[in-house]
Amino acid sequence: MRRALFLLLIASFTYLPTSLAQETASTERYQNDDLGIAFNLPSGWEVRTTLDTLLAGEPASLDAVELGGVPETLVIRVVTASFTDLNLGNATELPGQLVRLLPDPTTAPEPRPTTYGNVEGWEIDYTLPDSNLHSRVAILNLVGGRLALVRGIASLESWQNGAAEQFDSLKNTFEFTLPERLADPLATLPDEDGGVLWHYQASQPADSREIRLGGLAYDPFNLMYAAAGQRGVLVIDQTNGAFVNYLGPWFDDDNLVDIAINPSAKIFLANATPGDNYQIMVVNRAGGFEYAFGTTGDGAGQFAPGMPRTIAVTRKDEIWTVSEGHSTPPTNRLYHFDKWGNLLQMIDLADINPDLKNVRLDNNVSTSALYLIGETGGLNLLDADGNALVTNLGLEVFSFATPVDIAIAPGDNIIVATDSAGFLEFAPSGALLDRFGFPYDSGRTDAFKAGETLFPAGMVVGPNITVYFSETNPGTGYSQVQSFRFTGDGNLPLPNRPSTGQSVVVEQSLGIDPASGGGKIEYGAVVQGNLNNQYPLHYWTFTGEAGDRIRITMRDISPEQTLDTQIILQDPNVFDIATNDDLEGDTPEGFRSTDSVIEIELKAYGFYTIKATRFGGRGEYELSLEKLSN
Predict the structure, then answer these.
(1) What are the residues facing 136 on neighbouring strands?
(2) Are residues 428 and 304 part of one domain?
(3) How far apart, in Å, are the Cα atoms of 430 and each of 85, 361, 467, 611?
(4) pLDDT tens digits, one per residue of 573-613
(5) Residue at which a domain ends, from 128, 152, 176
(6) How far apart are the first and last CA of the chain?
(7) What tens digit of pLDDT does each residue of 26-68 get?
């Protein structure tokens, strides 16, 4: 849905009302730090912007484009996006994607390499014969894993009589930089909600091996298992965090650091043993040892000392794990075993991403996709065969916080634990959505408080994006497992929730989120979007006539059912003429009391704006616009 909306946005020449975002040029050099775009602005030109889009040209031509017409003079449009917004793995796929963006890819000319100021990419010229509209469209590779789609458009006559030369001159003046809002994305990401559901905590027992909590997993019977180093496996109640028991240890040199559970509740353990054998162990949920495999060495399928430290299991009980620090090439390896320990693949991590270091991995059981993240190298997505699809995702975020673990939510969202910024939630597209968690002061000697974390060692995500994490403070000996959600108040007080400056973020986020919603809507249409802390407001626009009786509905369709919707209708003069937060009286079938409905008769012809927003929560929504009979 997100990619479809994005492609629709860049393929269309419709635009937001000029009153929403408009700037008038006063100098020859135009610079927009929010978008990270600068270029020379011709005299008499105007620039109109939203969160990720820029439109520039003479006012009359801009008006024509906004109304879906053909501009008489040159208009330039720039849309910025990420590689994942266009379903791209790397820059080598750009020419093919450029062809697919055209109205008729079968007749598209061959893309040609090009330079736009300080960046490079590919471009194509084409003309729409029905409208006589000529376009030059370019796809450019920007810093931070981002792209720019640049269009120069004009009537064919205008293009042949000076617009082409004007565009060639202007494109050489472009300078693309990292947008200001991405310079420190964590500083402006709000954290006004979220809460801890339960908190297990214990000190080191005096009469047993050292407990050092690592990876987490849960079974279908509401039990949660944490790899516990030399002590074996900690078992607690998933619903409330109550202690149940310990399983193991099974051998004198066990050092269990990560854990995975298959659909039949078999427990697979990564054993960073100081010994020479049994680096992968399989036990049942009663603690019975079943089998193990692995040896120390540099041969194919063998493990370097202190490895492995991460493990994932597929639906077929195949095992993915990592071994770093070998003395012979490949030095750092991604291993793929069958359930019995037969090596299926050995992949050099440098072939995926040479920057990957201290890797943790998880898999999406439903799609078989594999996710690798390291202290360096960003987030990397692989297919079921270990082929890299996307690399270096999220570098603009991870330059401010070091990733230490990763987990994939049942709804495909990506949760990343960090060393200093708590837990970050990303959409499948790679968009940063939310964060939660507060740093524990390493100078303290007391126990963890709710919401605090020092260095998360394990993490797993359950239904409704309930996150569980585990760790042990080596300085105090306290071990903890916490359960939290990114939205809602939780059950425990959070004594040190920081101020996050939300007002700044909301101001930056007004407008279209090209990955998640906003744009043009017509009578009879039903559209969808996704609201969250990063994008709390979408604009949907339509043309109405005087006397039109309309109904607008907005309802939460997310599985979590935490979104409290709100809709605001603005007239052509951008005045609020109707608003609704909660339904009153009888609730229509399929709606909740926190959904929203507006019925109103329009007083004038013009361009109306529906502001789809929220009173609280987050999630996917469905918005409908209906013209009622008079």
Answers:
(1) 125, 152
(2) yes
(3) 8, 16, 18, 25
(4) 677 899 998 887 777 888 888 999 999 999 888 789 899 99
(5) 176
(6) 34
(7) 458 999 998 899 999 999 999 998 877 899 999 999 999 888 8
The CATH number given to whatever domain includes residue 586 is 2.60.120.380
Which CATH number does the domain housing residue 347 bear? 2.120.10.30
Give how many domains the chain has, as a whole number.
Answer: 3
85 and 200 within one domain: no
- The dihedrals phi and psi of 63, each to the nearest 5 degrees, come to -60, -40
pLDDT for the residue 615: 81
Q: Is residue 530 part of a domain?
A: yes
Peptide bond into 249 cis (omega under 30): yes
Measured CA to CA in angstroms, residue 190 lies from 11, 303, 448, 488, 498 at distances of 32, 42, 23, 14, 10
Q: What is the pLDDT of residue 109?
A: 82
Do residues 341 and 240 share a domain? yes
Pull the structure tokens for residue 6: 């994005």
Same domain, 238 and 381: yes
Q: What average pLDDT does the chain have? A: 85
Strands of 69-132, DSSP E = 75-82, 112-116, 119-128
> 121 vs 92, 323, 420, CA distance in Å?
10, 37, 36
In terms of Cβ atoms closer than 10 Å to its own Cβ (0-12, 13-18, 19+), residue 618 is buried
Q: Are 361 and 408 members of one domain? A: yes
Please check the confidence at residue 140 and state whether its pLDDT lies above 60: yes
Cα separation, 594 vs 601, in Å, equals 23
Instruction: Enter the tokens of residue 362.
Output: 């998880």
Considering the domain architecture, whether residues 198 and 58 belong to the same structural domain is answered as no
Report the b/e string of 141-176 with b at 16+ CB within 10 A.
Answer: bbebbbbbbbbbbbbbebbeeebbebbeebbeebeb
Q: Is residue 504 part of a domain?
A: no
145 domain residue, yes or no: yes
For the cut 70, the answer to whether the pLDDT of residue 500 exceeds it is no
**Alpha carbon distance 558, 513 (integer Å):** 18
Structural domain that includes position 86:
28-176
What whole-number distance in Å separates Cα of residue 163 and Cα of residue 616?
Answer: 48
Q: What is the pLDDT of residue 23?
A: 41
The β-bridge partners of 278 are none
Distance CA 262, CA 317 (A): 7
Q: Does residue 10 fall inside a structural domain?
A: no
**Listing from the earlier edge strand, what are the strands of the sheet with 403-408?**
403-408, 414-418, 423-426, 432-436
CATH number at residue 121: 3.40.1000.10
Question: Would you place residue 85 in the very low, low, confident or very high pLDDT band (cuts 50, 70, 90)?
Answer: low
Residue matched to tokens 């299991």: 313
Q: Which residues of 40-58 are buried (b: 16+ CB within 10 A; e: fewer)?
A: ebbeebbbbbbbbbbbbbb
Query: Model's pTM, two decimal places?
Result: 0.67
For residue 333, which of 341, 324, 342 has the smallest C-alpha distance? Answer: 324
**Confidence at residue 146, expressed as pLDDT on a 0 to 100 scale:** 75
Amino acid at 113: P
Please indicate, yes or no, whether residues 292 and 427 belong to a single structural domain of this protein: yes
Residue 571's pLDDT band (cuts 50, 70, 90): confident
Amino acid at 514: P
Q: 428 and 354 in one domain?
A: yes
Rg (CA), the chain: 27
Spell out the SS3 assignment of 330-382: CCEEEEEECCCCCEEEEEEHHHHCCCCECCEEEECCCCCCEEEECCECCEEEE
What is the predicted pLDDT for the residue at 21?
A: 36
What is the per-residue pLDDT for 495? 73
pLDDT tops 50 at residue 503: no
